[in-house]
What we know:
The structure is a single chain. Helices cover about 55% and strands about 10% of the residues. The protein has helices at about 20-30, 50, 70-80, 90-120, 130-145, 155-165, 175-185, 190-214, and strands spanning about 5-10, 35-40, 60-65, 65-70. Helix 4 runs parallel beside helix 6 (about 155-165). It is globular. Glutathione (GSH) binds near residues 60, 71, 72 and 73. Pfam families: GST_N. This is Glutathione S-transferase family protein.
Amino acid sequence: MSKLIVWTYDWVPEGPRGFVRDIRLRWACEEAGLDYAVHTVPFDERGPDHLAHQPFAQVPFLSDGEVELFESGAGLLHLARKSEKLMPRDPAGEAQTLQWTIAALNSIEMVSVPWWFLEVTGAQENNLAGWLESRLDHMERIFTEREWLVADRFTVADLLMADVLRVAKLRAFGNRPAAEAYVARITDRPAFRKARADQLAHFAAGDKKRAAKA
Ligand SMILES: N[C@@H](CCC(=O)N[C@@H](CS)C(=O)NCC(=O)O)C(=O)O
C-alpha cells in the first residue's frame, strides 16, 4: 500500500474538473516518481471527519504516514523535500524554490482567485482586473528574461506558478507571449498530462457512482 495519500473530493461538477488543486500534488508525485494513492472525502457532505483533516472543508490534503498536511503549497513543499527533482538541494536553490512557491500563492493566486470569483459570479465590474494585470505584467517581464523561476531548471515553484497562471486565464488579459509560452511548456510535461487525465478519470468515475446511487 502507498504511504503517500492525496485526498480529494469523490466528485465535483464539470466546471472545476482539471483544475481541482489535488492536481498539484498528483503532478508533483508524478514528476518525482513518488508512489501515491488517491483517497476521497464526500463533496456533498463535509462533516467532522473532513474538517479534522482540512479545517476549511476543502481539498486537497496529504497524508504521509504520521504526517498530515493541508494547503496545496505546504503539500508541494513537503513532497519537494523528498525529491531533488522538485527542488535543488543547495541552500540558494532551496531558498529560491520556497520564495517562488510562496510568490505563486501569495502574490499571484492571492489576486487571481478573487478576480476569477468576480468573473464567474458575473460581477458588473471587476475592480481586481488592474491589480491582476499588473502582477501578470511583472511575470511577463520575468519570463522574457528566464526560462525557469529557479536555478535554470524545473522545480516545484514552476509547477505551482504554471498551475496558478493557467487558472488566471492569461488570454483574458491581452498579449503576454512569454507567460503563455511558459504555461504551455510546463503544462506539456508528461507528468502534468498524466495528473490531469487521472483527475478527469477520477471525477468521471464519481459520475458513475452518483448515477448508480440515484
Ligand atoms: N489554499 C487552499 C485552497 C484549496 C481550495 O480552494 N480547494 C478547492 C478545490 S481546488 C475547494 O476545496 N473548494 C471547495 C470549497 O472551498 O468549499 C489550497 O491551496 O489547498
